Amino acid sequence: MGKIPEVSSLGARIAELQARLDDEWGWHSWHAAFGRYRSFVKSPVFEISFASLIVVNALVMALDVQVVGIDIGAKLNYASYQPTAVTAPWARLLVDRMDLFFGIAFTAEILLKCAALGFGFLKDPWNWIDTGIVCCWYVDVADSALIPVNASLLRLLRLLRLLRLLRLVRVIKAFDSLYLITTALKGSALILTWACVLLLFLQVLAALLLNQVLYAFYFTNERFPISERHQVFAYFGTFTRSMLSMFEITLADFPEICRLLTENVSEWFMLVCIVHKLIIGFAVVSVINGVFIEETFRVASSDNFVMMRAKEKTSKIHEMKMMQLFLQADSDQDGLVSREEWRALLSHPAVQLWIGSMDLDVEDSDGLYDLILAEDKDRGLTMDGLIRGIDRLKGTAKSYDVQLLLRQVGSLAANVDKLNTKLTSSKYQGASVLQNLAGPAEDIGKEGHACQLMRGAAWC
Asked: Which residues of 115-126 are buried (b: 16+ CB within 10 A; e: fewer)?
């Protein structure tokens, strides 16, 4: 038993020595610095910086394609194209230097993320895509003959980085509309699939029916000129041609194909084309568009991020309007709106109409002032009090407010019932006096009946 204090003191000395070593080697400061570095790598600033590089990289790739296209046009003697080596000798050098810069920059991005995230780097699929694209860049720079793929296709893979810009939609508030579009498209994937299946089935049915009619009565009929049959065959000669023509009739150029069938085959095809356009090109496509619109509103009303952003935007707009209203009302600029200043403000018809649009009663200005001032009676009506008060009062009563009121009324009715029970069951003389003062026992004032009604309403 005497050795226990020695062991505990030895542990304390070891811990003290460990703390001294940590201080001498700066482990605590190193951990703090690494934490700040890791937070920076995960921050929106880091993502936005490299997203900007991705956009610039796409522009440089567009310049590269433009230079290559001009050189090919010069070799083909197209128009007055001249080689860029003559007209813009700096273009190729600029593209090569920028390509080298972007390759090094994106390599540094991957290394920074690996150092900061560790094994967590492997959990994000975008990190795998970025690593693969950077590896393709190194293969292209070293020797593109190592893999049996065209070097131009390797460069096109870098365009996949543009999809990373969608990750910034949740960070930048200016992209709220874009986030809503992308979220609605993601939520509409199943609807898009079934819409494509429906349209494909209808177009296959129409294409097969039209093919069979033309095979039987037109293509092999020598009575029709061969030039006209060639024209019709170009649109409906095979199943694939017919499918393309049916989609063109439904979604694109309707008159040209309808005129071709009417003039070269028979005027009865005018009726066929019009019926197809009305049923599939108008009715079916309109229903599909309506379903997509409904899905967009459903996503907008159910997505948590969209609802939070909408609520935040509404709150800021309300706060800005109330600040303007307060500055207009505070004529003496003392930071408080008195009752007289409030009356003077509500005397303007424009202010009455604006506040009335919030479902507030502007006829009783003093009553509205007291309701807004409910939480700040001691200090007076401040700007914050005006913002909170109007926000609390505007609009119609919600179900939450009604239920809260019913609960409070029910609690009050229960307390009155308990008090009444105590008074009627008490044997003290004071209780008898109170009961006599309250009135006859038959409840002429119907207080008990009113209490029961309140309790019943609260229970409902």
From this structure: ebbeeeeeeeee
